[in-house]
Design brief:
There is one protein chain. The chain is mainly α and 209 residues long. The protein has a single domain (10-202), classed as Orthogonal Bundle (Hypothetical protein af1432), CATH 1.10.3210. It is built from eleven helices and two strands. α3 (55-64) packs across α6. 45% of the residues are buried. This is HD/PDEase domain-containing protein. Residues 27-103 form the HD/PDEase domain. It comes from Streptomyces pseudovenezuelae. It holds the Pfam family HD.
């Protein structure tokens, strides 16, 4: 498996292929493309800053990070990121990853909904935060060249992602009022997500407009 967007590559190998297949099977096309874009945004951010990171770990975590928003893996008690962390540990155990690496995959997914992580201390967790934030709400999008964002959305179109993702978070907030998604929904997150400049790219406008 070789995937590349504007000079940013995804890893090859059994783990990456399996994560890609699982995400494609359980996520709808909009959520699947979001997972891929989240990886590429994070990896591009790292490359621009010369940061070394575990590309396989970030890719696997990116592909799995939102699967607990889907019906087969949704928890009625746990926040979706916590449920997703458990899912990642089970997935990684099936790959034969050691316990420490399974825990790291779960940690990345949990932390992507927490306060920003220092990239010097934990680059992988920070990259998933950067990637998901840029793709969902447009936070930090100005750190990327417009041409890169356009190439990424062209490769993996948004397919109405913002509206569908807001619905998913509002559902989580309604059922789990003390979760991180509920905190975001109570603020201006939904409005920022629907106004993400990346949504305009799907309509053919420039990332800078």
């Amino acid at each position: 498996m070789v995937i590349e967007v504007a000079g940013v590559r995804a890893p090859s190998g059994r783990a990456a292929e399996a994560a890609l297949e699982v995400c494609a099977e359980y996520a709808d096309p909009a959520l699947y493309h979001h997972s891929l874009r989240s990886y590429f945004f994070g990896a591009a951010w790292a490359q621009d800053r010369g940061l070394d990171f575990d590309r396989e770990l970030v890719f696997v975590s990116a592909m799995l990070h939102d699967l607990a928003l889907t019906a087969p893996f949704d928890s009625h008690t746990l926040p979706f990121e916590d449920a997703g962390g458990h899912l990642a540990r089970v997935f990684a155990a099936g790959l034969g990853w050691p316990v420490e690496r399974r825990d790291r995959a779960g940690e990345l997914i949990v932390l992507h909904m927490r306060d920003d992580v220092d990239p010097e201390r934990d680059p992988e967790s920070r990259l998933l935060q950067v990637g998901t934030s840029a793709d969902v709400s447009g936070t930090g999008l100005d750190a990327f060249e417009p041409a890169f964002a356009e190439a990424l959305v062209t490769a993996y179109p948004r397919l109405g992602f913002a509206a569908s993702f807001v619905r998913l978070f509002r559902d989580q907030a309604g059922r789990k009022p003390r979760c991180a998604a509920a905190e975001l929904v109570a603020e201006d997150w939904a409005e920022r997500t629907l106004a993400n400049p990346l949504e305009g790219l799907a309509a053919g406008t420039s990332a800078g407009e």
